Amino acid sequence: MPGKAKMQKHTAASLAKKDAQAKAKSGGVGGGAAGVASRKVGGEGNPKCPHCNVSLAFFKDMKAHMEAKHPKEPFDEPKWKEVFAAAKAAATADKGKSQSGKVPKAKKERGPVKGNTDALPAELLAAMAGMGPKKGGKKK
User: Fold this and answer.
1) Of 81, 94, 78, nearest in space to 44 by CA
2) Mind listing the pLDDT tens digit of every residue in the chain (140 residues)?
């Protein structure tokens, strides 16, 4: 008679991995500390909707918000493009130099390369010269 236990189809680790991949694919993660700040609701420096005071980080979001939430209100595209460009310029000016990609690791200093006798001390070279090659022999 078989046992009652059932095989587990999905582990917590595999579900978490799939969730993280889906979030990354949709643009929900990344950008480091700057990305976290830009994704925060009510982030500092983000332009706000003049009607409902919702903070939006990008021009496309503002346009979609205005079309969905305030369809009867006029939406001046050139004005909002300038507002978002100014907000982006102010944000990048505060950070100084923006970083993209990985930071290269500092290379470790290594010892002399095998076969390179230039870096060996003179005494060691003299000792090695007197030794000569090993001769194979019978073990006693």
Assistant:
1) 94
2) 566 777 778 889 999 999 888 877 766 666 677 666 656 544 566 888 988 888 888 889 899 999 999 999 998 999 999 988 888 877 666 555 555 566 677 777 776 656 655 656 777 777 777 676 666 656 65
Residue 128 and residue 78: Cα distance in Å, rounded? 79
Cβ atoms of 87 and 47 within 8 Å: the answer is: yes
Q: Which of 90, 98, 93, 100 is nearest to 44 (CA)?
A: 90
Chain centroid offset of residue 22 CA:
16
What's the rounded Cα separation, in Å, for the pair 30 and 49?
25
Q: Spell out the SS3 assignment of the chain.
A: CCCCCCCCCCCHHHHHHHHHHHHHHCCCCCCHHHHHHHHCCCCCCCCECCCCCCECCCHHHHHHHHHHHCCCCCCCHHHHHHHHHHHHHHHHHHHCCCCCCCCCCCCCCCCCCCCCCCCCCHHHHHHHHHHCCCCCCCCC
Angle at 67 between CA 63 and CA 68, to 5 degrees: 115
